[in-house]
Amino acid sequence: HPYLRRRQGIEPVEFPSPAPPHDPHELHDVLGRTFGVPLFQEQAMKLAIVAAEFTPDEANGLRRAMATFRNLGTIDQFREKMVGRMVARGYTQDFAARCFKQIEGFGSYGFPESHAQAFGYLVYVSAWIKSHHPAVFAAALLNSQPMGFYAPAQIVRDAREHGVPVLPIDVNESGWDNGVLSVEVNINTVSPNFNRSPEPVEGRLKGQHRPEGRASTSSALRFCNNPQNSVALRLGLRQIDGFREDWADAIMAARAHGPFTDIETLAARAGLNDQALKLLADADALRSLNLDRRQGLWEVHRRPGPSLPLFAFADAKELAAEPDACLPAMPLSEHVAADYQTQRLSLKGHPIQFLRGAFDHEGILSCAAVNAAKNGAQVKAAGVVLMRQRPGKGNAVFITIEDEGGIVNILLWTRLMERQRRAVMAARLMEVHGEVQRSKEGVVHLMAHTVIDRTSELTRLSATHDPTPELSPADEVNRPQNPRPPRGGHPRNVRILPKSRDFH
User: What are the φ/ψ torsions at residue 472 (nearest 5 degrees)?
Assistant: First the structure.
């Protein structure tokens, strides 16, 4: 922060001088390029050599103490030596202490200038690809999972927010990897009404590229650089939790002889077992066969061969044919929850949108409203937990939550975390009370003081639940810890979201 403030002219650049007869400009050569702030390991070592007259062996010991990711607790041994020698040479006690404090920060995370340059180059190249070819960038990240802080749902969401059409997993279209394709498509029909029979997407595929390997971006760049067509991202079969690559290879090989038209054709030509078919159906990947999630699972269970006793009994010759039961359609909220459970993302919606009415009733703001709130405002927010971090076992815990409109970055001091540790660490759906803090640069954090585990609300993801339930005569709370299954639903249809990505 001192470097950034000085570079922006917010804070004056200072180069204190030692007492005579020492060179009054000796720090200019060491810290001139970084406005008087040590940023790199080499600068810290040179500062110790020049300003504190460390010997080469002492400077090497300092380097070892502040080695990246090796916080061994030894850097403190150099405090008295460095500060004392700088003061003896005429620097003020305050300046010498501040220099060592900044160097001390390298003890848990500090790296040489060559590392910084390499990292900066990678960031620039990645940013260029993301800016000019966002579909390729998203596909490469998805094919490289698990990696980094961002889960598949956030990668896909960001791509869509940057204008990339994202097409669902489909047994007749998807390869193993997530891929990019040039497409002329009416985007409004990419997400059909999932409470009725599937309808084909209106569009004409111009071609498709499925990146080879885990993150093949260069060939994809050559393929999709056609400004006349939209470049879409097609989700791959690898997104289905538990699905095997050899099953995907068999599907693609069989598909070369024509599209699949029904479950039996798919099973016979691709040689898929019941487990593979169930995973495809549960992931809602059979829409091109005119089967939604529940219809697909029904058809898989009805296939010839070993089946559930109920289906075997229904096919007995002595029983007359019975009309099909008019079962209720699977609610959109349950589709979304099932998507998160099977694919870790959903193109159909976000879990929080179905709880928004209840949250509004309780005065809980959306993430977008929190980010737009005034500095110092006391607010309540709620969202799905994306990640938790506690860098270097430090004094603060950083949490990111997400709802249907965006994310909120939360900062919780460790002393407050210990009082509510279970809620902080276990919540999949989290309610947070705190104060909005907005920096001069416009960065918003919610400084939390209260965290409530609202994971039980996920059992209410049914279109039939009342979003604003009235209190009972006995003043029963609106959010019981163990709510009953929603009316018209079944406990087995309630899906709990995947775990967050936590870094401690």
Answer: -75, 165
Q: Are 212 and 219 a contacting pair, CB within 8 Å?
A: yes
pLDDT at 441: 78
Residue 502 has a pLDDT of 72
Give the global pTM: 0.73
Structure tokens given for 376: 């110092």
Contact 430, 451 (CB under 8 A): yes
Residues making up the chain, counted from first to last: 504
Q: How many CB atoms lie within 10 A of CB 141?
A: 23
Question: In this structure, is the dihedral angle defined by the CA atoms of residues 326, 329, 334 and 336, taken in order, positive or negative?
Answer: positive
| Tokens read off for 239 | 């997104």
CA atoms within 13 A on the CB side of 90: 11
3-state DSSP call for residue 320? coil
Tell me the C-alpha distance between 313 and 329, whole Å: 25
Distance CA 278, CA 293 (A): 10
Tokens of 327: 């079962």
Both tokens of residue 206? 């111009």
Closest by CA position to 450, among listed 393, 380, 394, 395: 380
Task: Judge whether 458 and 351 are in contact, CB under 8 Å.
Answer: yes
Q: Which of 491, 370, 341 is closest to 437 using CA atoms?
A: 370
pLDDT value of position 310: 58
The DSSP-derived string for 105-171 is GGGTS---HHHHHHHHHHHHHHHHHHHH-HHHHHHHHHHT-S-SS--HHHHHHHHHHTT--EEPP-T
Query: What is the reported pLDDT for 490?
Result: 43
Strands (E), 348-428: 378-389, 396-403, 406-413
E strand residue ranges, 256-328: none
pLDDT at 202: 33
> 299 — phi, psi (to 5°)?
-65, -35
> Quick one: tokens of 69?
């990711």
What is the Cα–Cα distance from 106 to 41, expressed in whole angstroms?
Answer: 8
- Nearby residues of 500 by Cβ (< 8 Å), 6 or more positions away: 385, 386, 387, 388, 428
DSSP letters, 34-49, are GTT---SHHHHHHHHH
- Could you report the per-residue pLDDT of 21-79, keeping only the tens digit for each? 999 999 998 999 999 888 888 888 888 999 999 998 888 888 777 764 444 556 778 88
Instruction: Using 70 as the pLDDT threshold, list the residues of the chain that sit under it.
Output: 67-74, 106-110, 183-229, 305-322, 324-327, 392-393, 462-498, 503-504
